[in-house]
Design a protein that fits this description.
alpha/beta; four-stranded mixed sheet; two-stranded parallel ribbon; 6 helices; 16% strand
Length: 171
């Protein structure tokens, strides 16, 4: 293995919103992917960032599995496992702003852009949400349209509604 490469450990997690395919490094969460997405697409992306996919779950993957089960059971509001932010400077600012939105609350894409220091970049904030590889931990489901509409979501709007209802959010 190339010294600049590391392993990405997969684990499939059954959840109330369907199957989640996750990839974890030895320190952080690289991706949470909804079951309707292709495992081969995730593998290609992991290889593009220098990660060697492995079918074996590691300690971080097993901890994520436990924390997601607690989240879906209504027993966890904050995660101790950390996502790895792999994106542009603007995307990572948006993702950090998303992680600051309290459990059960929502903000508009415009407000999200404002929190990231780009008040006129609501559409770009929505685009950054769409590039989020670690949904739930980076809670892009908490970003909604300014008129109160749901906007978009990589896992589909039904999944976004389920996550918001789980958290007791008004939308």
């Amino acid at each position: 293995m190339n010294p600049s490469q590391s392993t990405a450990h997969f684990i499939e997690i059954e959840s109330p919103i369907g199957l989640l395919l996750t990839a974890c490094s030895d320190k952080s969460i690289l991706a949470i992917q909804f079951g309707n997405d292709s495992k081969s697409d995730l593998t290609v992306w992991l290889e593009s960032i220098g990660r060697i996919p492995s079918g074996e779950p590691n300690a971080v993957a097993l901890k994520l599995q436990r924390e997601l089960a607690e989240y879906f059971a209504g027993k966890r509001r904050r995660f101790t496992v950390k996502p790895e932010l792999i994106g542009t400077d603007f995307q990572t600012k948006i993702w950090r702003a998303l992680m600051e939105i309290p459990f059960g609350e929502t903000v508009s894409y415009g407000e999200l852009a404002n929190r990231a220091g780009r008040p006129l970049a609501a559409r770009a904030a929505g685009g950054a949400c769409g590039k989020n590889r670690v949904p739930i931990l980076i809670p892009c489901h908490r970003a909604i349209a300014s008129g109160g509409g749901l906007g978009g979501f990589g896992g589909g709007l039904d999944v976004k509604r389920q996550l918001l209802r789980l958290e007791g959010a008004e939308f």
